[in-house]
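Form 7-S
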Amino acid sequence: MKFYLWRSNCPYCHQIHDSTYSRCPNCNADQQDKGKRFFDQMLHCNILKQLGFLLLALVGLTALSTIVQSVQMVLYKNDNPSASADQIKEFLTAAPNLFASNSIAYAVLLTGMGLLLWKGWKELLPSFKNWKAYAFGAAGFGAIILFSMVYNTVVSSIYGAIGRELPSTNNNQSLINEMILWQPVACLIVFGLIGPMTEEFAYRVGLFGAATRFGKVFGYIITAIVFASIHFDFGAFSDPDALEPELIALPSYIFSGLAFSFLYQKFGFAASFAAHATNNVFSIVVNYMQMTRPQ
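Output:
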């Protein structure tokens, strides 16, 4: 198995380029390596940039959210000096404040990723002009919905057979639902467009791009696991009632991670983003309709 970790030297023009190019970006000569064609539809970033995208998401999102929440807490405590720890927590997790910390973090993070990509925009933007990317993105979204329907039917049947009701939504979705009820249109923009684009940069361009240099199967597996993990509330391990819905939701995130990676590798960034954004927008709209439906 070949690894494509760093740089290659074109045998024709002798220019050094990223090792994942199947054709030299300088003279367009075929590099005579079929394994490199796996990367043809993916953004060609060196491994340091790819790791940069990943670290920005894993560290930057948490750090930015923490900074915003710290500012919110200081302002709240200045106005309410006798506030208890529970009152402060309730304030920070209220929909407006939670939305502010998430939206600011995502906006700053996406800006940073755009700057990190730099010249890569010349390769990225043309993928959005190809109608096939949207067609395959729609097909990917359909596959995710079909999987969710089948999976939920199976899980519901199992719970019905043992005489139990399905647990409520996991913590991640519950918090998002509160924000959707508070400001549905703003949530469509942040969680339906900005969030998916940020995550596609992080987990497709970044993690998947770097991991597949060590092997195609490895790239798919590690990306799906990490993608599912970032949507998992590890704090639920201290609460059995909260852990159950988190574990039930995990396979859906794993399948989505695999589907987005497949679309990115086969049809480019626009396809995986289209599927990811459509999936999030669909989820927001459906959840809002369910939550506001007259009883």
